Amino acid sequence: MVKPRHHWLSDKLLWAALLLAALVVGLPHSEPLFASLFPQLERPVYRQEPFTQLLWQHLLLVGVSGAASVLVGTLAGVWVTRPQGRAFRPVLETLVSMGQTLPPVAVLALAVPAVGFGELPALMALALYGLLPVVQGTITGLQAVPAPVLQAANGMGLSPWQRLLQVEGPLALPVWLSGVRTSVIINIGTAAIASTVGAKTLGSPIIVGLSGFNTAYVLQGAIVVGMLAVVVDMVFERLARRVAWAH
């Protein structure tokens, strides 16, 4: 099937990414707009750090914590679906559920006395907070593999590792990816509060705005965080379509 000549013009992901780029580059130059919206504010535009730098640091924090969540959550999820780890599944699910129910602010408050201010307590809180969707996606995906398929793999003489890597893993991939998508999107929003412990993220304008009663700062930070979540979600949506097509 021949694609239209300018099919890229209808690419929603491209337009969303361009809008995000326009926001981080254009916000420092939007003083007339925010001055008209918030005439009572003496400084209506956040200029303490460039939004491009905050976006990069936000992505780095989410990427590192997300990688830790995916690695630990996937290994733990695989382990409790094997015969030797099946008895520990209730314990694992209880622990990761507790991690999800703890407010991230409380985790940050507990981590700061132990590791100090900065990115490290934020990484710990985000990695803990992102575990549950990955563990659930891994367990659900592996358990959804049809029994006849597993019996056929056993009949072919595949070892447990070969069966996991060549049969169960590929079939569980769409559900696992859905769990990773949820984990990352949650952490993009949650990373904003990491600025309360000294980590520089897109939450910095929000925290400074809240402490200084500057609604314009809060609005600018919230818009960029929201747009970043939309762009990353669209990337995962496209990836999920490719995985579904491959199946």
UniProtKB/TrEMBL annotation:
Domain ABC transmembrane type-1: start-end pairs: 55-236
SUPFAM superfamilies: MetI-like
Keyword entries, A-Z: Membrane, Transmembrane, Transmembrane helix, Transport
Localization of this protein: Cell membrane
GO cellular component: plasma membrane
Transmembrane parts of this sequence: 54-80, 101-120, 217-236
Gene3D superfamilies given in the database record: MetI-like
Membrane topology: Multi-pass membrane protein
Listed InterPro entries: ABC_transp_perm/SBD (IPR051204), MetI-like (IPR000515), MetI-like_sf (IPR035906)
Predominant cellular place of this UniProt entry's protein: membrane
Any one GO BP annotation for this protein: transmembrane transport
Family, per entry: Belongs to the binding-protein-dependent transport system permease family.
Protein name (database record): Osmoprotectant uptake system permease
Provenance organism: Hydrogenophaga crassostreae
